[in-house]
Amino acid sequence: MAAGDALVVVGEPTTPASARIALIQHPAVAPPGSQERLAPGEISPPSEPPPEALARTSGEEEEVLFEADFVMRESEDSPIVAEGNVRAYFGERYLRADRLTYDPQTDIVVAEGQVSITDKSLETAFADRVEITGDLRDGIAENFSALLAEGARLAADEAIREQGARTRLSHAVYTTCEVCKANGEGKTPTWRVKALRVTRDEERKVVRFRHAFFEIKGVPILYMPFLQAPDPSVERQSGFLTPVIGASSRLGFNLELPYYLALSNHQDATFSPKYTTNDGMLWQGEYRRRDISGYHVVQAGVIDFDNTKPDEDGRIPVGIPGVRWHIFAKGHRDFGDNWRAGYDIERVSDNTYLRRYDVERRGDLRQEIDTSRTNRLRSNVYGQWRSGGSRLLADAYLFQGLRQTDDSGLTPYVLPLIDFRHDFQTPVVGGRASVNANFASLQRSSGVDSRRFTASAYWEREHITRGGHRFHMFAEMRADAFYYADLDEGTEICSDPTDACADDNPWILRNDPTDFDARFAPSAGLEWSYPLTRRAGPARLFIEPRVQLVASPANRNSAHIINEDSQSIEFDYAGLFDYNKATGFDAFEDGQRMNAGVAASAVFNNGLSIEASVGEQFRLQDTRAFDPSTGLGEKRSDIVGSLDIGYRNVVNLENRFRFDDDDGSLQRAESIGRFSLWRFSGSVSYVRLNEENAAADLVKREELTGRMRVRLTDNWSVGGAWRENLVADRTIRQDFIIGYQDDCATFEITYRRDQTRDVGLGTDNAVLIRFTLRSLVQ
Questions:
Q1: What letter does residue 634 receive in the DSSP assignment?
Q2: Are 346 and 377 in contact (CB under 8 A)?
Q3: CATH code assigned to 138-235
Q4: pLDDT tens for residues 150-180?
């Protein structure tokens, strides 16, 4: 309140306890000694500050609004006294108290009895007695407490507010935990910091503690002469993050202590040095930058490794470098509205580095699981242009194999891979049309080099009849040209250049180490489906039969064409109706075929749902486009389908399967079940792959994985995870977990047994400890 502001009522207090008196600027002040009374209920209390309480603009004086049961003033120069349910509004600040005295001569407000002050950020301070300036900005509070952002709480014997941006407290306590039970009774918080002096600096967004004791459940466990934590209102602040403490047979005792550095509004970094007693210090960190033109993320690490020391199994590592490192990087930059350049880099020093130090892509670098790249890293740089319906993309790829058998000389690098596509913006013969051109160049330092160019035109049209029948027509004209060099350097080339060898192996040994081949591969097809739904008693039923007819010339996959980009194919119901199931351009699904299937579901009122699908492909002739292990290529494909069953949020079961069409044996199964019932939750997954394809890095695999957590109390839980290799009858990994979590802290201890073995990587038994204190350690 500025000096000179006064009341519309002076003199003796008003008599009715229910009266409310609005106090505004001084032009309305009555002469000293006069008295004015209001009838009960004449001015009702506002539920929120009225417009008169808000600050004026353009240099005008701010206005104040008082409300109270009784208000009095002896003279024009005497203090203003308000008693009984006092409320004062000044701009975006709001005060409540039992009694308030304002002296215009000193511009001091004294509030007493259950005082609370709320500011524009909705943080509220409480005290028994407050002496503050008239604008409710600075002052002194006794028996102070405050409810800050994100539920943080701060209490002290005395608090001094300075310049509206700094609060100094004596004998203070700070926590982000609940201090009251559900019934209103007090409780000891999970953690709190008691300090002789505390300074909350809202300009620098920090809270500083001096001579502080850190307590867990009321028990002091650590003394700190100085401690600084981010202010609860700040979104990000430089400081230490949650540490990870562990001990393992591979690394010995290890400690990872991340430090977060906020560099600016658009860039930051995290340094995460990891100390290990066996291997020394792993220096690692991550830098992030995001602005209007793009973003960049770089994660890297390096360690000086003693490769002459035996590993945990007593073996001397072979092929492990003295300096081990990794780098992951991803980002892009836009140049105007049409151009973009980007990259995605992942490289490591050796095959076992990532597994030994438990390094993975995090945050923005995290990727979806790609089953075709479990043992391979891929680096990529690209340039892209878009305009209207046109797109031009130029890529370059570099691969790194992580298996012992990988030969870097036979691992290709792609430079360049160019793809152009144009979608016509207007209908063509009543449908959508596009043209595409693709060029790929693969180089090897000691293997076959290949070049391929593909040009195609595609057209499709969809029609739905009044009866609900859906027809989808499509056609593609496509031509491919291939050129190969250094055919005599490929290690997988047939040693016998006969037609018999050519029929069995696509790598052909010729007198000439170069070869050129071309093919014309058009396709045309029609697809029909008829989705039906109806209500049947307590269930909603749905069924959709679907049939697709595709015609292409046969024998379009010559043995002279090397399959570089279509080796890994996962045949399931989701891909059954792809008219060309090859994942790249080198292979082409030729011949005449029919894809047929049906999908159905039932959703019941009680929360039970069942979804199922099943389908198969039928061909007039075999094709060499696919390896026999994929379940495709013969006149009848394997049978593919899915079955999903769920009951509310209690149980959910998802299944994907593929059965051999001849003997009905299970060739591929992917199942996962999730449950959450009472105090129990977890999941069970089963994977079975009978496919064996050396070119696609596929081997027979059967694994069972289970996870389970039991909530012992509202805060404590135990759990475990188990991964079993059923083919080798060997346990891969086991985890046992004890955890605690409440409103302000998490704590977890994990015991892990990892049976993975490799060169320089033995079995591992480890204990990991992780804890988080909200707002104090992030």
A1: S
A2: yes
A3: 2.60.450
A4: 788 999 999 998 887 889 999 999 998 988 8
